[in-house]
Automatic annotation (TrEMBL):
The lineage of its organism: Eukaryota, Metazoa, Chordata, Craniata, Vertebrata. Residues 116-313 form the SAM-dependent MTase TRM10-type domain. Keywords: Coiled coil, Methyltransferase, S-adenosyl-L-methionine, Transferase. Its EC number is 2.1.1.221. It comes from the Eukaryota. S-adenosyl-L-methionine-dependent guanine N(1)-methyltransferase that catalyzes the formation of N(1)-methylguanine at position 9 (m1G9) in tRNAs. Probably not able to catalyze formation of N(1)-methyladenine at position 9 (m1A9) in tRNAs. Signal peptide: none annotated. This is tRNA methyltransferase 10 homolog B. It catalyses: guanosine(9) in tRNA + S-adenosyl-L-methionine = N(1)-methylguanosine(9) in tRNA + S-adenosyl-L-homocysteine + H(+). Residues 88-103 have a biased composition (Basic and acidic residues). The keyword S-adenosyl-L-methionine applies. GO terms for cellular component: nucleoplasm. The keyword Transit peptide does not apply.
Length: 319
C-alpha cells in the first residue's frame, strides 16, 4: 500500500509541488536540513490540509514548521526508546546464554553422554544395587504390565541423570514374557540401557543377608542406604490392591524388609477425597532413594518421591 501511495504522489504534479513547498517551509525554519525534513514528511505521512501556499493563513508558516518538527521529535524519541529496549533485551539474552553454557561447563551432548555412561558403569562396582523383582507379573493385567514398563523407563531415566546413581538389575526378566515385550515395545533403546537383565531370581544372585526388600507394609523404617546392600523393589502395579503381597514374599525367605520413613517425617494432609496412601510406583520410590543417597536428607528425599496426590505433606510444611 505504501508503495502505491508513493507512486501516486510522484504521478501527480500538483501534489508533488505542494509536497516540495511543504519541505521548503520546514527547511528554512530548521536551518537547512532539507533532506531530513522531507524524509520525515514522507515517513510520517503528515498532510497539512492545505492544497497550496495560498490556503495558509498569513504568518502561519513558522507555526506549521514547528508543529511538524514537534511531531518529528516525538517520533524520534519513540524510535530511540524501542532501539534501546531491543539492545537491552539482546544483551540480557546473551548473558543468559553465557550463564547456561557456563553451568554446563561447555560440554557437548556427546561428552555429557560419555560422562553419564562412565558414572553408571562405576556404580556397578561401588554403588548400591537396586533390583526390580519382575516375578509377580502373573498377578497383573496387560494394562498394569504396560504401566510397569513405563515406570521402569522413568526409573532408568532418573538414575541416568543422578549424580550418585545406583546399579539397576531387572530380575525375573524372561525373554518373550509380557513384561519383556512391553519394555522393548514402549521404551526406545531399551536394549542399550546400562543395567542388568536376567531371568534368574535375586534369591539366587545375592547372599540373603545382603538383601533388603522394600515394601510399604514393613514395620521397619529405612534409616540409611548401605552401598554394600542389595535393595529389592517388587515390580508390581496393583490396581486391585493385593495387600501385603510383597511383604509375604519377603517373609517366606526370611528377608530383611524396610519401608520409606513416610510416617516418621510426613503427616496426613486433609483433602476432598480423604485419600492417604504410602504405596508408591517403583520410579517414585527410586526418586526418594536416589535423592537421599545424594543429600542424606529424608525430608528432601520424601519431598522428591512422594507426590501430593498421595495425601501426605512434610511435618514442617503442615505446621
Amino acid at each position: 500500500m505504501k508503495h502505491a501511495e508513493h507512486d501516486t504522489e510522484e504521478s501527480d504534479p500538483v501534489r508533488g509541488a505542494d509536497r516540495q513547498w511543504e519541505c521548503e517551509v520546514a527547511w528554512q525554519d530548521d536551518g537547512g536540513d532539507r533532506e531530513s525534513i522531507c524524509e520525515s514528511f514522507w515517513l510520517l505521512q503528515i498532510d497539512t490540509g492545505c492544497d497550496s501556499p495560498k490556503d495558509l493563513p498569513v504568518g502561519s508558516e513558522k507555526w506549521y514548521s514547528r508543529n511538524v518538527l514537534r511531531k518529528q521529535r516525538h517520533w524520534e524519541k519513540i524510535v530511540t526508546a524501542k532501539k534501546k529496549r531491543r539492545k537491552q533485551e539482546k544483551e540480557r539474552r546473551k548473558a543468559k546464554h553465557a550463564e547456561d553454557k557456563g553451568a554446563a561447563h561447555q560440554h557437548s551432548k556427546r561428552v555429557l553422554k560419555a560422562i553419564a555412561k562412565e558414572r553408571l558403569l562405576a556404580a556397578k562396582e561401588a554403588a548400591p544395587w537396586l533390583c526390580i523383582d519382575l516375578s509377580m507379573t502373573s498377578h497383573m493385567t496387560k494394562k498394569e504390565i504396560s504401566r510397569l514398563a513405563a515406570q521402569i523407563r522413568r526409573l532408568y531415566g532418573s538414575n541416568k541423570k543422578a549424580g550418585k546413581p545406583f546399579w539397576i538389575c531387572l530380575t525375573g526378566f524372561v525373554a518373550g514374557s509380557p513384561i519383556s515385550e512391553e519394555c522393548f515395545r514402549m521404551n526406545d533403546g531399551f536394549s542399550n540401557y546400562l543395567m542388568d537383565t536376567t531371568p534368574e531370581s535375586y534369591l539366587d544372585l545375592f547372599p540373603l543377608e545382603t538383601i533388603v526388600y522394600l515394601t510399604p507394609d514393613s514395620e521397619n523404617a529405612l534409616q540409611d542406604i548401605d552401598p554394600h546392600r542389595v535393595y529389592v523393589l517388587g515390580g508390581l502395579v496393583d490396581e486391585s490392591i493385593q495387600k501385603k503381597l510383597t511383604l509375604q514374599k519377603a517373609q517366606e525367605h526370611s528377608l530383611q524388609t524396610a519401608r520409606l520413613p513416610i510416617a516418621e517425617y510426613m503427616v496426613k494432609n486433609a483433602n476432598v477425597k480423604n485419600y492417604h496412601s504410602e504405596t508408591l510406583a517403583i520410579n517414585q520410590v527410586f526418586d526418594a532413594l536416589s535423592t537421599y543417597y545424594e543429600t542424606q536428607s529424608w525430608p528432601e528425599a520424601l519431598k522428591a518421591g512422594v507426590p501430593p496426590g498421595k495425601g501426605y505433606v512434610l511435618q514442617e510444611t503442615a505446621l
